[in-house]
Amino acid sequence: MTTDTKAGAPFAASPPLPESGTGTPVPAPPGGARDAAIVTRGLTKRFRGGQVAVDSLDLVVPRGSVFGFLGPNGSGKTTTIRMLLGLVTPTSGTRELLGVPLAEALPSVGALVEGPAFYPYLSGRDNLLRYDAADRTADPRTARERVAAALDRVGLAAAAGKRYRAYSLGMRQRLAIAAALLGPRELLILDEPTNGLDPQGTREVRALIKEIAAEGVTVFVSSHLLAEVEQMCTHAAIMRAGRLVAQGSLAGLRAGEVPRVRVETPDVARAARVLRELGLMDVHAGEGEVTASLEDVAAEHANAELVRAGVAVRGLAVVRPSLEDVFVELTGEGFDVDG
Amino acid sequence: MSTAEARVAPPGAGAVVPVARPFAALRWFRSELGLVFRRPRNLVMLGVLALVPVVVGVALRIAQGEVSAEGGAFAQVTGNGLMLAFGAFAVMLPLFLPLAAAVVAGDSIAGEASRGTLRYLLVTPVSRTRLLVTKFAVIAVYCLAATATVAASASIAATVLFSPDGMTTLSGTVISGWEMIGRLALAALYLGLGLSALGAVGLALSTMTEAPIAAIAATVVLSVAAQILGAIPQLDVISPYLLTSAWSGFDAVLRDPMAVSDLRDGLLVFAAYIVIAGAVAWARFADRDITS
């Protein structure tokens, strides 16, 4: 699925983007490309139907980072990845991998794009040997041992001689990761690498990604699983409707989000009014509770004002934002819209 | 993975640009060749191609005497065993041989696209031009293997079933069995190249779809349609430009002296088809968005 399913009116139906006061993380500056594994400038893809799948993407992935590429379905993640890898030609804009022309960069890039793809009637080993044979830079003398090492690394050594047809979904996914690890890599681009894996397999793949990153390989991983990104990644970017709405280090992304206060009270309407008068933004009155973005107001001050106004406060808590809050705020969507 | 670690550049360092290794193109060609020739379906097709001359030969042997009264290439088979091979070519050119070429050619790009392996090949990276050239080379080898299979199977069957010593050419002269084998090899080569030209068309069609069966069917339909057009006397004017008409020129090797100019004309037609189809495939594929 490379197309944006919501392209009819990508923005109209969505809630407005956060006001400037809420501190959307500033997109990384276009400079600094020297230390970047991936740089895109104004990367845009308009498909033949006129539909814009990716719109003016300025992405900077620092070398050595584990970079989470987040976004709901149809937000343009896969199209972006396809453009990065040269499968799809950008309508406009540029992209650079590892600071060299694409054809020179690709041998150092391992990729997993939209799931595994292999010959069903060949064994896992023969499938990897075939991809290795297609790589002009691969040394044929070490092919067998590199294939064996890659299979071993993803835990498929025992199934190496089995036909791909007989592999389970999880094994197929592992084989695709093994294919991405066949040669010496500087950058891994992994599209939903834990798709189809059981919890054990998911943990193993995450550990593997960390291990690879520890060797100095930059890992660019798209995901719709926030928890996954929070566990693995040092940096992240968030896509929405073809646009990049935020990117930066995880800490930086979270810092951009202002903590919220949650007030439990039977007196919802009055509490909401008091909070608004105090200058709190984004006030939501719910069933027996009011939540609001704290902005610069101290929580204890808000509490004092509520009490002074005669609001019965049963409880008051400051809620620190998680990456999920950042995401929901920026994309206007929950995370499990993905199928 | 010590080799991998050794070549991983530290963060911030310039990319170590890997260089192409010598004979890499050959290595990949061999790998692709292995893929086509290990695929059961393709082997079964070769097996069927080998079987047809044997069946025809056995049938003629059984019916010996009854058939010889009639005309055509087969009439001479019983007297001139190797004629069986030429008869087999004539019988298989309308459908069997083009079908074999179409299956391999139509599958070449569309099959990769439908399996999703195309995207992985391209990010390996394999340049698109290199992909087309390698695929065509494999198609050509398969086509040559197909005609060689027919020739070999027919020769063996003829040797076993009939007396293969010396035969009469279409011009009425008699040539030795060995020269006959040489001419048969020439015919197999000529037809192999002719089928490769159809394979080039199939390759071009294969770049236009993600459904291999569609490319295969389209290639077969084109070949059958061309034969129908070639059979309509009113359309004689286009006949020299039809690939399928050039195929039937293989009987030039049966004349004495060989009708070399006919063969040359046929080869020019094949070359023209390969160049044009190759150009179409390249134009269609070089900057196509791969979304499979």
TrEMBL record, chain A:
<dbReference type="InterPro" id="IPR027417">
    <property type="entry name" value="P-loop_NTPase"/>
</dbReference>
<keyword id="KW-0547">Nucleotide-binding</keyword>
<dbReference type="InterPro" id="IPR003439">
    <property type="entry name" value="ABC_transporter-like_ATP-bd"/>
</dbReference>
<feature type="domain" description="ABC transporter">
    <location>
        <begin position="38"/>
        <end position="266"/>
    </location>
</feature>
<dbReference type="InterPro" id="IPR017871">
    <property type="entry name" value="ABC_transporter-like_CS"/>
</dbReference>
<feature type="region of interest" description="Disordered">
    <location>
        <begin position="1"/>
        <end position="34"/>
    </location>
</feature>
<dbReference type="Pfam" id="PF00005">
    <property type="entry name" value="ABC_tran"/>
</dbReference>
<dbReference type="GO" id="GO:0016887">
    <property type="term" value="F:ATP hydrolysis activity"/>
</dbReference>
<keyword id="KW-0067">ATP-binding</keyword>
<protein>
    <submittedName>
        <fullName>ABC transporter ATP-binding protein</fullName>
    </submittedName>
</protein>
<dbReference type="Pfam" id="PF13732">
    <property type="entry name" value="DrrA1-3_C"/>
</dbReference>
<dbReference type="GO" id="GO:0005524">
    <property type="term" value="F:ATP binding"/>
</dbReference>
<dbReference type="InterPro" id="IPR003593">
    <property type="entry name" value="AAA+_ATPase"/>
</dbReference>
<keyword id="KW-0813">Transport</keyword>
<dbReference type="InterPro" id="IPR025302">
    <property type="entry name" value="DrrA1/2-like_C"/>
</dbReference>
<comment type="similarity">
    <text>Belongs to the ABC transporter superfamily.</text>
</comment>
Automatic annotation (TrEMBL), chain B:
<feature type="transmembrane region" description="Helical">
    <location>
        <begin position="266"/>
        <end position="285"/>
    </location>
</feature>
<keyword id="KW-0472">Membrane</keyword>
<dbReference type="GO" id="GO:0005886">
    <property type="term" value="C:plasma membrane"/>
</dbReference>
<keyword id="KW-1133">Transmembrane helix</keyword>
<feature type="transmembrane region" description="Helical">
    <location>
        <begin position="181"/>
        <end position="205"/>
    </location>
</feature>
<keyword id="KW-0812">Transmembrane</keyword>
<feature type="transmembrane region" description="Helical">
    <location>
        <begin position="83"/>
        <end position="105"/>
    </location>
</feature>
<dbReference type="Pfam" id="PF12730">
    <property type="entry name" value="ABC2_membrane_4"/>
</dbReference>
<protein>
    <submittedName>
        <fullName>ABC transporter permease</fullName>
    </submittedName>
</protein>
<feature type="transmembrane region" description="Helical">
    <location>
        <begin position="212"/>
        <end position="232"/>
    </location>
</feature>
<dbReference type="GO" id="GO:0140359">
    <property type="term" value="F:ABC-type transporter activity"/>
</dbReference>
<feature type="transmembrane region" description="Helical">
    <location>
        <begin position="136"/>
        <end position="161"/>
    </location>
</feature>
<feature type="transmembrane region" description="Helical">
    <location>
        <begin position="43"/>
        <end position="63"/>
    </location>
</feature>
